[in-house]
From TrEMBL, chain A:
Boundaries of every ABC transporter domain copy: 8-237
Any GO MF annotation of the entry: ATP binding
Record's keyword annotation contains Nucleotide-binding: yes
Name the record gives this protein: ABC-2 type transport system ATP-binding protein
Domain of life: Bacteria
UniProtKB/TrEMBL annotation, chain B:
Keyword Repressor: no
Record has Mitochondrion as a keyword: no
Recorded GO CC terms: plasma membrane
UniProt KW keywords: Membrane, Transmembrane, Transmembrane helix
Entry superkingdom: Bacteria
Pfam family, one: ABC2_membrane_2
GO molecular function, one term: ABC-type transporter activity
Residues that span the membrane, as ranges: 20-38, 64-92, 113-146, 166-194, 201-222, 250-272
Descriptive protein name: ABC-2 type transport system permease protein
Length: 313, 279
């Protein structure tokens, strides 16, 4: 197995907006040549992080490196190798798809001929509508044109912020297939954000989950969504002291963020051992139960509270 | 830089709202020309009411030069609105459309982006004034012919020889371009703080209306403010229709307008370079 080169390296990134900490000490690395999922519910800080990766927003503190170079000092060189669709694919509505694409190519620093522009439009299924104004396009068509604009200068890294928002099932499948094609057949790297675990699960090799601007989990998707692992909910007579004890013990690596009580992420056959250790340490256990699968746990982290409540009922 | 400016120009001239200004100017000029062509002598008699009692002026009084001067006096007050319509949209309009984030995430410097947008706005301003000059001067000369130009001042009537007029118009239109570029830079400045173009357009016009009122009202307190109001200097295109032309005064006003443009543009660059683009 060979080590993949690091494409994005983010270290202790913080962004404050007038008293609100939108991103709180985020650190992650994205390897080259894979789909990296960036998961979190709406307002978790995904778009702010992506905007910092694209120099639209200045970090309060922390550092970002892309392609091994400092984003602040090597902005021009880096951005030439990056294509992005940020939130909605807003384009010049009074211009045609062809004109929009031509402008984006020139702004990205490449001279692209008519044939290449048409080829790119055909690739995203807009060849027949090349000379129609964007204001006549559906949301799905705009999204595809946005992706064409992100790809026209042949970037190494493609950043897609919620690319399936507002799309019908067929549109979602098309985008998914395009992302997989870009990575597998063209050797690109894709950093894709979503608030839907199901979306990320289908395409990403690795993922980072954030909540309230903080990292919740990161790693290989196959490991994070390991079906043999479970979330254990623990209640004791003194949760704070128990948490302190757990943090100092071998169970520290299993602790998971929790809104209430203590949660641990571990294989179900280790639950009795955990219980023995707790009793041995003199912890008064009130309850210890395996609550739900990891997938349910991540869903609860990346779905709105109302949604979770409805789901549980 | 040229590539960025050409992209901005392409966008400006592909946008339907750009042509509102050209249609509005053409409509006003053609209407004034039609009215003067049909009943210009009545208008002239009314304007010269006080002069006619003392003097008898012979010759072709209603000529292309006079018509152009009449149009300029009326129209140059309204042109700032048409300029603000485009300049106020340059950054705020992009923010509103969501395209500003596209531009700012490209490998181009933010200063370069601002400068190219302002260069394109200046080209639009110049194009609008060249169009206005072609219609108000060129078409008026074709329709009404040429003769000596009568310029009515508050305390005198100045008659400029036919041979001594055309260059004055070139100077006046050149000065008007500078004045309108100042308006464009003001709208551009307000545009950097807004996320839709209505705010900068209305704010620009409000500032110009307020400053123009302060400029025209003859109250001692306001008089002390006048040298600092750019609207006061914008009116100095009329200086080219003095005899002799007070070049010192014209150049001083031009310098103050240039200083305003540089100041406004510098603030835009400073703010835009630090701005978090959240639209």
């Amino acid at each position: 197995m060979h080590m993949r080169e690091t494409l994005i390296s983010v270290n202790n990134l913080v962004k404050d907006f007038k008293g609100l900490r939108a991103v709180n000490g985020l650190s992650f690395t994205v390897p080259q040549g894979e789909v990296y999922g960036f998961l979190g519910q709406n307002g978790a800080g995904k778009s702010t992080t992506i905007r910092m990766l694209l120099t639209l927003v200045q970090p309060t503190s922390g550092s970002i490196q892309l392609f091994g170079q400092n984003l602040t000092t090597e902005r021009h060189t880096i951005l030439r190798q990056v294509g992005a669709v940020i939130e909605r694919p807003d384009l010049y509505k009074y211009l045609t798809a062809y004109d929009n694409l031509r402008i984006m190519a020139r702004l990205s620093g490449v001279k692209v001929g008519q044939k290449e522009l048409m080829r790119e439009l055909e690739r995203v299924g807009l060849g027949q509508r090349a000379h129609s104004r964007v204001k006549t396009f559906s949301q799905g068509m705009k999204q595809r044109l946005g992706i064409a604009c992100a790809l026209i200068h042949n970037p190494q890294l493609i950043i897609l912020d919620e690319p399936t928002n507002g799309l019908d099932p067929q549109g979602i499948a098309d985008i998914r297939n395009l992302i997989l094609h870009l990575v597998k057949n063209e050797g690109k790297s894709v950093f894709v954000s979503s608030h839907l675990l199901s979306e990320i699960q289908l395409i990403a090799d690795s993922m980072l989950i954030i909540d309230k601007g903080r990292e919740v989990a990161q790693g290989r998707v196959s490991e994070l969504l390991n079906p043999s692992e479970t979330i254990v909910q623990l209640h004791t007579t003194d949760d704070a002291a128990t948490t302190q004890w757990l943090q100092a013990s071998q169970w520290q690596q299993h602790l998971a963020p929790a809104a209430d009580g203590i949660q641990l992420r571990l294989h179900s056959n280790r639950i009795p051992l955990l219980n023995r250790d707790l009793v041995g340490a003199g912890v008064d256990v009130l309850s210890l139960q395996s609550r739900h699968s990891l997938e349910d746990y991540f869903l609860s982290l990346t779905t709105s509270n109302q949604h979770v409540a409805a789901y549980q009922h | 830089m040229w590539q960025l400016t050409s992209i901005e120009l392409f966008k400006i001239f592909k946008k339907p709202r750009t042509y509102i200004s050209f249609v509005a100017i053409a409509s006003i000029i053609l209407l004034v020309q039609l009215a003067l062509y049909v009943d210009g002598e009545t208008y002239l008699s009314f304007v010269m009411q006080s002069v006619n009692e003392t003097f008898s002026i012979e010759g072709k009084r209603l000529n292309g030069y006079f018509v152009c001067y009449t149009i300029l006096q009326t129209l140059l007050v309204h042109v700032p609105l048409l300029i603000a319509l485009v300049a106020g949209d340059m950054l705020a309009g992009e923010a509103n459309m969501g395209t500003l984030r596209l531009l700012a995430s490209k490998p181009i410097s933010r200063s370069g982006l601002v400068l190219s947008k302002f260069a394109a706005t200046t080209v639009y301003t110049i194009a609008l004034l060249v169009f206005m000059a072609a219609l108000s001067l060129g078409l008026s000369i074709l329709l009404f012919g040429t003769s000596d130009l009568m310029v009515f001042k508050s305390d005198m009537l100045l008659i400029l020889s036919q041979k001594d007029v055309l260059w004055r118009y070139f100077g006046a239109f050149g000065f008007a371009m500078l004045a309108m570029t100042t308006v464009a830079s003001l709208a551009f400045l307000l545009s950097v703080f807004a996320e839709n173009s209505i705010g900068p357009i209305i704010s620009t016009m409000s500032i110009i209306i307020l400053f123009t009122i302060l400029t025209t009202m003859d109250i001692p307190l306001f008089n002390s403010l006048k040298p600092f109001l750019f609207t006061n200097h914008m009116l100095n295109w009329k200086g080219f229709f003095e005899d002799p032309v007070d070049y010192r005064e014209v150049l001083k006003s031009a310098g103050i307008l240039v200083a305003h443009i540089v100041l406004f543009l510098s603030v835009v660059i400073f703010v835009f370079r630090k701005k978090d683009i959240l639209s």
